[in-house]
C-alpha cells in the first residue's frame, strides 16, 4: 500500500488529474450500454455531456498549472519472443485539449441527429456508432505506445466504414464504402509495415524510446503515407465524393473529429521522428500545399452543397500538413481543433437546408433562405466567414499565423504560392456558398412557408457557433503563451493573408454580380468547359491503369506458373499413369495381342452373317 501511495505521489498533479478524469469520461461514455435501450439516444446525449464536463477539469488544471511534461503508466499485457509490448497512456497537451473539443463537437452532432434521422429505421444505431467512435478516438489520442495506437487506428477505420455505409441497402452507399476501404487500405498497409518493422527492429514500442533513439527514413515515410491516406490528401481524396451518401450527422462526425483527423494527429504525435528528417518534412510540405490548392480550386467548381463543404476538408488538412512540414506541430494541432467547430457547424447547416428542401443538394436550386431559416443562415454565414479566415473568428488566428510562419521560414516558394492560392480559393467558394444558398430569391419548388427550424436544431448550431467565436483566442493563448506581441515581419508580409482573403472576397462579389453564380451555366459558359474529371483522368486513371496492368501481369504470370508447377509435379503424372499402363499392355509385341482384334472382328462378321441368313 505504501509503495502504491509513493508511486502516485511522484505523479505531477496535472497528469494525475488528466488520467483520473479521462478514465471517468470513458466510464461515462460506456454507461449507456449498461442501461435500458428504450431511451438510448437520450442516455447517450447525457453521457457525452457528462464526459465533456469531466474533461474540462484537466483543461482548467492545464490553464492554472501547465502540463508541459508527459506521464506514462506502464501496464505490461503481452510479451513476445522478439519484443515486449507495453501499454502506455500519455496525458499531455494534445490529449488534454483535444478531448473536450471532440466531446463538445460530438455532443452537438448527437443532439442534432434525432431530428435529422427520426424517420430512419436505424436511428438508434447512430448514437451507438458515435459512442464507440469516441471511445476509440480517446484511445488514439491517449496512446503513448505503438500497439494501442495501431489498434485504435484500425478501430477508427472500421467505425468510419460502418458510418459511410449507413444506407447499406443502397447501391451508391455500398460503392462509397468499397471506395473508402480501398483508398484507406493503402495507408493502413504502409502503417502496418512500419509497425511490424519497428517491433522487429526495436526493443520497445514505446514512443518515448523511439523518439530518443530515432528510426530509419523508410519507416518514417511509411508513417507519412499512412497518415496522408487517412487524411484524404492527394491521390486518396476521391472517396470523399461518395462518402456523402451517408446522412449529414455522419458526414459532420467524419469530417470534424474522427476519421480524417486521425492521420494528421498521427503525424503530430510522431513529429519528433519527423523533425530531424528533411525528406519527410519536404514530402509533408509539398504534398499538403498541392492538395490544399487543388481541392480548394475544385470546390469552387462544384454545385453540390455537401461536396463543397467536403472538399474544404482536404484543403484544410493540406494546410495542417504544410504546417507540419515547416516544423510547427502545435500550430497544426491548433488548426485541427479549430477546424472541428466550423466544419461540424457547416455540415449541420447543410443538413437543415437539404432536409427542408426535400433532399435537394444543388445550390443553384436554392436561394432566399435568409428569412426562412434565420438561425441556420446566420450559423452558415458565420462558419463560411470563419473558414475563409475573417478577422477575429476561429480560423483567422490559424491562417494568419500559418502565412506569417511560412513567409518567415526557409521553404519552397512553390509551396508558399500554393498555400496562398488555397487561401484565396477558400474565400471564393465560401462566398459562393453564402451567395447561392442564402441570398437573392428562392429557386426551389418547395413552399418556403413549410420550412421548419425547431429548437432541437437551433441549440447545437448555436453551441458550435459560440465555439467558433470563443475557442479561437482561448486555444491560441493556451498553445502559444509566448507568442510575440509585436510584429516580426514587414507590413506587406504581415497583411498578406488578410489582403488575399479580402481581394478574393471582393473578386467573388464581382463575379457573383456579373455572372450570377446561383444560376445554371449558360451554353457558352466557361464553367462548362471545366470538368474536374479531366484532372482525374490523366492523374488518377492513367496511374491506376499502369499500376493495375502491371499487377495483373505479375499475378497472371504467378498464377500460371503455380498452376503449371502444381499440375506438372503432382496432378499430371498421376493422371497420365493409368493411360500409360493401358498403352503399355498393348505395346509388348506378343502374337496374342495381334490375333485378339482379328478374332474379335471375325466373330462380329460371323454373327452379322448368321443374323442375315
Automatic annotation (TrEMBL):
EC numbers for this chain: 7.1.1.2
Residue intervals of the NADH dehydrogenase subunit 5 C-terminal domain: 429-602
Keywords of this entry: Electron transport, Membrane, Mitochondrion, Mitochondrion inner membrane, NAD, Respiratory chain, Translocase, Transmembrane, Transmembrane helix, Transport, Ubiquinone
GO molecular function terms attached to this record: NADH dehydrogenase (ubiquinone) activity; NADH dehydrogenase activity
Reactions performed catalytically: a ubiquinone + NADH + 5 H(+)(in) = a ubiquinol + NAD(+) + 4 H(+)(out)
Annotated transmembrane regions: 16-38, 50-73, 93-112, 124-144, 150-169, 181-199, 211-229, 250-268, 280-299, 375-398, 410-431, 461-480, 492-513, 591-612
Subcellular location: Mitochondrion inner membrane
Gene Ontology biological process terms in this record: ATP synthesis coupled electron transport; electron transport coupled proton transport
GO cellular component annotations of the record: mitochondrial inner membrane
Lineage: Eukaryota, Metazoa, Chordata, Craniata, Vertebrata
Primary localization class, coarse: mitochondrion
Top enzyme class: translocase
Mitochondrion is among the record's keywords: yes
Protein name stated in the entry: NADH-ubiquinone oxidoreductase chain 5
Occurrences of domain NADH:quinone oxidoreductase/Mrp antiporter transmembrane (ranges): 143-417
Record flagged with keyword Manganese: no
Amino acid at each position: 500500500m505504501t509503495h502504491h501511495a509513493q508511486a502516485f505521489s511522484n505523479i505531477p498533479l496535472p497528469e494525475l488529474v488528466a488520467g483520473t478524469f479521462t478514465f471517468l469520461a470513458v466510464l461515462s461514455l460506456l454507461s449507456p450500454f449498461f442501461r435500458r435501450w428504450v431511451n438510448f439516444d437520450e442516455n447517450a446525449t447525457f453521457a457525452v455531456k457528462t464526459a465533456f464536463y469531466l474533461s474540462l477539469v484537466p483543461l482548467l488544471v492545464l490553464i492554472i498549472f501547465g502540463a508541459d511534461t508527459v506521464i506514462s503508466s506502464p501496464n505490461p499485457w503481452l510479451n513476445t519472443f522478439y519484443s515486449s509490448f507495453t501499454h502506455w497512456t500519455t496525458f499531455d497537451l494534445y490529449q488534454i485539449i483535444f478531448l473536450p473539443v471532440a466531446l463538445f463537437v460530438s455532443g452537438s452532432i448527437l443532439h442534432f441527429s434525432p431530428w435529422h434521422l427520426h424517420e430512419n429505421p436505424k436511428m438508434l444505431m447512430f448514437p451507438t456508432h458515435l459512442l464507440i467512435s469516441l471511445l476509440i478516438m480517446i484511445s488514439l489520442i491517449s496512446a503513448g505506445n505503438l500497439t494501442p495506437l495501431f489498434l485504435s487506428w484500425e478501430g477508427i477505420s472500421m467505425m468510419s466504414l460502418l458510418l459511410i455505409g449507413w444506407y447499406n441497402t443502397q447501391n451508391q452507399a455500398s460503392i462509397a464504402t468499397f471506395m473508402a476501404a480501398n483508398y484507406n487500405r493503402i495507408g493502413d498497409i504502409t502503417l502496418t509495415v512500419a509497425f511490424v518493422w519497428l517491433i522487429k527492429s526495436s526493443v520497445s514500442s514505446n514512443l518515448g524510446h523511439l523518439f530518443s533513439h530515432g528510426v530509419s527514413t523508410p519507416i518514417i515515410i511509411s508513417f507519412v503515407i499512412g497518415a496522408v491516406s487517412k487524411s484524404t490528401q492527394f491521390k486518396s481524396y476521391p472517396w470523399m465524393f461518395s462518402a456523402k451518401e451517408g446522412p449529414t450527422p455522419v458526414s459532420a462526425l467524419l469530417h470534424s473529429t474522427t476519421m480524417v483527423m486521425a492521420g494528421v494527429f498521427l503525424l503530430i504525435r510522431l513529429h519528433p521522428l519527423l523533425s530531424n528528417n528533411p525528406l519527410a518534412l519536404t514530402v509533408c510540405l509539398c504534398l499538403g500545399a498541392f492538395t490544399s490548392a487543388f481541392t480548394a480550386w475544385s470546390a469552387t467548381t462544384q454545385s453540390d452543397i455537401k461536396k463543397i463543404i467536403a472538399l474544404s476538408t482536404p484543403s484544410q488538412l493540406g494546410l495542417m500538413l504544410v504546417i507540419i512540414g515547416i516544423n510547427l506541430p502545435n500550430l497544426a494541432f491548433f488548426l485541427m481543433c479549430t477546424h472541428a467547430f466550423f466544419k461540424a457547424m457547416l455540415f449541420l447547416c447543410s443538413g437543415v437546408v437539404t432536409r427542408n428542401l426535400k433532399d435537394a443538394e444543388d445550390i443553384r436550386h436554392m436561394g432566399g433562405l435568409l428569412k426562412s431559416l434565420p438561425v441556420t443562415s446566420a450559423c452558415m454565414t458565420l462558419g463560411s466567414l470563419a473558414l475563409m479566415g475573417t478577422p477575429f473568428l476561429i480560423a483567422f488566428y490559424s491562417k494568419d499565423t500559418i502565412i506569417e510562419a511560412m513567409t518567415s521560414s526557409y521553404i519552397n516558394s512553390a509551396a508558399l504560392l500554393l498555400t496562398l492560392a488555397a487561401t484565396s480559393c477558400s474565400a471564393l467558394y465560401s462566398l459562393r456558398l453564402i451567395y447561392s444558398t442564402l441570398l437573392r430569391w428562392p429557386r426551389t419548388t418547395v413552399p418556403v412557408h413549410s420550412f421548419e427550424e425547431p429548437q432541437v436544431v437551433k441549440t447545437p448550431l448555436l453551441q458550435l457557433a459560440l465555439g467558433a467565436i470563443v475557442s479561437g483566442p482561448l486555444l491560441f493563448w493556451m498553445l502559444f503563451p509566448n507568442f510575440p506581441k509585436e510584429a516580426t515581419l514587414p507590413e506587406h508580409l504581415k497583411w498578406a493573408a488578410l489582403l488575399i482573403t479580402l481581394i478574393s472576397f471582393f473578386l467573388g462579389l464581382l463575379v457573383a454580380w456579373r455572372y450570377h453564380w446561383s444560376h445554371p451555366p449558360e451554353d457558352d459558359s466557361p464553367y462548362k468547359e471545366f470538368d474536374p474529371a479531366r484532372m482525374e483522368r490523366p492523374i488518377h486513371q492513367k496511374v491506376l491503369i499502369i499500376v493495375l496492368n502491371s499487377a495483373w501481369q505479375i499475378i497472371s504470370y504467378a498464377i500460371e506458373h503455380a498452376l503449371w508447377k502444381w499440375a506438372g509435379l503432382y496432378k499430371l503424372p498421376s493422371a497420365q499413369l493409368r493411360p500409360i499402363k493401358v498403352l503399355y499392355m498393348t505395346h509388348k509385341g506378343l502374337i496374342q495381342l495381334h490375333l485378339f482384334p482379328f478374332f474379335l472382328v471375325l466373330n462380329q462378321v460371323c454373327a452379322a452373317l448368321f443374323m442375315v441368313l
